[in-house]
Amino acid sequence: MISVKILSYKSPQRYAVKRTLIAAQNDLQNTYPHLEIAVTEVKTVPEMEQYTPVLILPSLVVNEKLVCVDRFPKKDEVIRWLRDAIEEHA
């Protein structure tokens, strides 16, 4: 199980990042059929500040590791971060 946190206080930003995350998961499903991702949306400033002081644009945390700060990640990047998390658990 991979834990992913989407950090943003704006709902449209969280939605956009979540769509990218789902697309990345779908691409990896053939290679890793048992891939499970637990997604948490972090919406409050105090919670987000536990990971990053940057709050204007969304950030992404994979297995408690901040991987993307203050921007919208690309699908290929998310795939790489998810693969890295899978390999760390292997």
Q: Could you characterize the architecture of this molecule?
A:
With 90 residues, the chain is α+β, with helices and mostly antiparallel strands. The chain has a single domain, classed as Glutaredoxin, CATH 3.40.30.10. The protein has 3 helices and 4 strands. It has helices spanning 11-28, 45-48, 75-89; strands spanning 2-7, 37-42, 59-62, 65-68. A 4-stranded mixed β-sheet has the order 2-1-3-4. A hairpin with a 2-residue loop joins β3 and β4 (65-68). The longest helix is centred in the first third of the chain and has 18 residues, at 11-28. The chain is globular. The termini are close together.
Range of helix content: 40-55%
* CATH fold-type name: Glutaredoxin
CATH architecture verdict = 3-Layer(aba) Sandwich
Number of helices: 3
